[in-house]
Design brief:
The complex is a heterodimer of chains A (302) and B (264).
Chain A (H helix, E strand, L loop, with lengths): L8 E10 L2 E11 L4 E5 L6 H8 L7 E6 L10 H4 E4 L10 H12 L3 H10 L15 H13 L5 E5 L7 H16 L3 E5 L3 H7 L2 E6 L2 E7 L8 E7 L2 H10 L4 E6 L2 E6 L4 H10 L4 E8 L2 H12 L1
Parallel strand pairs in A: 3-7, 3-8, 5-6, 6-7
Antiparallel strand pairs in A: 1-2, 1-4, 8-9, 10-12, 10-13, 11-12
Chain B lengths: L2 H11 L3 H29 L10 H8 L3 H21 L3 H7 L3 H37 L9 H27 L3 H25 L3 H6 L1 H9 L15 H25 L4
Helix pairs in contact in B: 1-6, 2-3, 2-4, 2-6, 3-7, 4-6, 4-7, 4-8, 6-7, 6-11, 7-8, 7-11, 10-11
The chains are: A alpha/beta (302), B mainly alpha (264).
């Protein structure tokens, strides 16, 4: 049920340079409410820089990053509007409960709300222990609880699944889906591509600070079957496959060039290759997934 | 009370340093108050001074005997309050909670001043507890009927509170907390006292009055030679302004630099 009326997050012609090096270069994209937007890119692509600018920790060289029309610093109640998980940093001697209690006065949260949240993220029993005794996964849960303290309309999460166990990752996935389903907006970066595939409605891909792609996951037609053929003569094989009307393209992986045929009919592909008399090293069906798409997008951006 | 201030008060009370400092200040202040008291006693036995425990300057010196140590501990609390935020990266969640950084930093400064007042009261209170037996055993007076005594007590409390601001300034300007602590303690315990001692021994009162400790002595109107008090101190109010400048200039410089820079 949609019960929130939330304007989108707008990244508009954002540029950030550090000593002449461009970390973010003329980046524009929109994070729609009611959807989970996955933010992808290789290490150093500028994801974290973009998110830090969005929440006011760094100032852009030019351009804007806003929630609706307002920058983070202009929000009247920042914690009640935006929940952030950036780097999970805690004072080691402070207990998890006290970490939240320190953030509670500005978030308008009571001690009761703090205790309830600690229970929800599964830290109820260790709430009064110093964070130094927490595992990475427990710290990540605490960071998520801190983000939720003010019941925000937006979530901005940088690698939130880091250190979570499979159960925690499943919990997070359900949580983000439910959050977005209520009409609120989620921007989540992750290097776990299958995690994003399972969670995101839209993806934004950047590389070297530039936008490579922004599109809904549905347009990727993931899960559609293809067939992979590794042959001795690519040119001959291409002709033979086109002759039978197959949608075929060349692709490459660590083992070299291969053909990707947009069909699951291995028999038809195999007989076409057999009839032109070339050696077939490999013939296998494959499922298109986000990882494949991600790397072909990066490949195309070079 | 604003959310930013309540958050900063909780930030201080949820770690141990504040009460460790409080206990240290009480114990050390009692010890340091006994020092000018004993010197005064020896002077009176040797016949150098008659009835020292009726001399307002001496009595105020005992009350404020702990100041020299308490202010360093107050500075340490100030350095750690901001330095631990950089050290453990919690400054990120502080800025996320209060993105108008000056508001966050002013909240922190106010919380530190509140704890500084607590430390000041503890230090002067310990000094008064020590002064009482000396004074009463030697036909002296606690001088609590004199407004100058109360002025010295209140300014003593304020001066310790102000030293938390020197700490906050150092803690922002030197982002590495451990380096900031070493610098602060060396400046406070070694460099400043040695320079003051040189000025004191040469009787360069004008320069001595400009030093943080000299300004503190003049502001509190204490005359004990143990504390290198100038023979011709500036008036208490001018001394107070000099000390305030020492404390607030680094704090303001730090705040203005922190407002601008990106969080690493």
């Amino acid at each position: 049920m949609v019960d929130h009326d939330v304007p989108p997050i707008v990244i508009d012609r954002l540029i950030k340079s550090y000593n002449g090096t461009l970390a973010v270069h003329n980046l524009s994209f929109v994070v729609e409410p009611g959807r989970v937007t996955g933010f992808l890119g290789p290490n150093g692509a500028g994801k974290t820089t973009t998110m830090r600018i969005l929440v006011g920790l760094a100032t852009p060289t030019t351009g804007t990053a806003t929630f609706g029309d307002l920058t983070y610093a202009e929000l009247p109640h920042p914690q009640q509007t935006v929940g952030c998980v950036l780097d999970a940093s805690f004072h080691p001697a402070r207990s998890g409960r006290n970490h939240l209690r320190v953030l509670a006065p500005t978030a308008g949260a009571s001690d009761r709300r703090v205790d309830k949240l600690l229970g929800q993220v599964g830290l109820g029993r260790v709430a009064r222990q110093p964070v130094a005794e927490y595992s990475t996964g427990m710290r990540q849960r605490l960071a998520l609880a801190a983000a939720m303290l003010g019941r925000p309309d937006y979530l901005v999460l940088d690698e939130p699944a880091n250190g979570l166990d499979p159960e925690g990752i499943r919990w997070l996935r359900g949580f983000l889906r439910e959050f977005a389903a209520s009409g609120r907006a989620v921007l989540v970066s992750s290097h776990l591509l299958n995690e994003i595939e399972a969670t995101a409605d839209d993806i934004v891909v950047i590389n070297r600070g530039r936008l490579i792609a922004q599109l809904p996951m549905s347009e990727l037609n993931l899960g559609e079957g293809t067939t992979r053929a590794r042959v001795s003569d690519v040119g001959v094989a291409l002709q033979a496959l086109k002759a039978i009307g197959a949608d075929v393209q060349t692709a490459a992986d660590e083992r070299g060039t291969y053909l990707r045929i947009h069909s699951h009919d291995v028999g038809r592909v195999g007989s076409a290759l057999f009839s032109c008399g070339i050696v077939v090293d490999e013939l296998a069906t494959e499922r298109r997934d986000l990882e494949q798409e991600f790397f072909s997008m990066l490949e195309g951006s070079r | 009370m604003s959310g930013a201030l309540r958050a900063e008060l909780r930030r201080i009370t949820t770690t141990k340093l504040w009460w460790i400092a409080l206990i240290c200040i009480f114990v050390l202040s009692a010890g340091y108050a006994a020092l000018p008291a004993s010197v005064a006693l020896l002077q009176s036995r040797a016949g150098v001074a008659s009835a020292p425990f009726t001399d307002p300057g001496i009595v105020r010196s005992i009350y404020n005997g702990g100041n020299v140590l308490s202010r360093i501990l107050a500075m340490v609390v100030g350095i750690v309050a901001i330095g631990s935020e950089y050290r453990y990266g919690t400054v990120v969640s502080s800025y996320l909670a209060t993105p108008r950084r000056l508001r966050m930093l002013l909240g922190k400064a106010t919380a530190l001043l509140i704890f500084g007042v607590l430390y000041g009261i503890t230090s002067v209170g310990a000094g008064m507890l020590v002064a009482a037996p000396f004074v009463l055993a030697h036909n002296g007076s606690l001088l609590l009927n004199q407004p100058e005594t109360w002025r010295s007590i209140i300014l003593g409390v304020c001066s310790i509170a102000l030293w938390t601001m020197i700490g906050m300034g150092i803690g922002i300007l030197i982002k590495n907390m451990l380096v900031a602590l070493v610098v602060g303690i060396i400046l406070g315990f070694l460099v400043e006292p040695v320079i003051s001692l040189v000025f004191f021994l040469n009787r360069w009162d004008q320069l001595l009055n400009l030093m943080p400790s000299g300004a503190t002595n003049a502001m509190l109107e204490i005359t004990s030679p143990v504390l290198f008090a100038a023979q011709h101190p500036t008036p208490w109010w001018l001394a107070g302004l000099i000390l305030a400048a020492w404390c607030l200039v680094p704090a303001l410089a730090g705040m203005l630099s922190a407002v601008r820079r990106d969080v690493a």
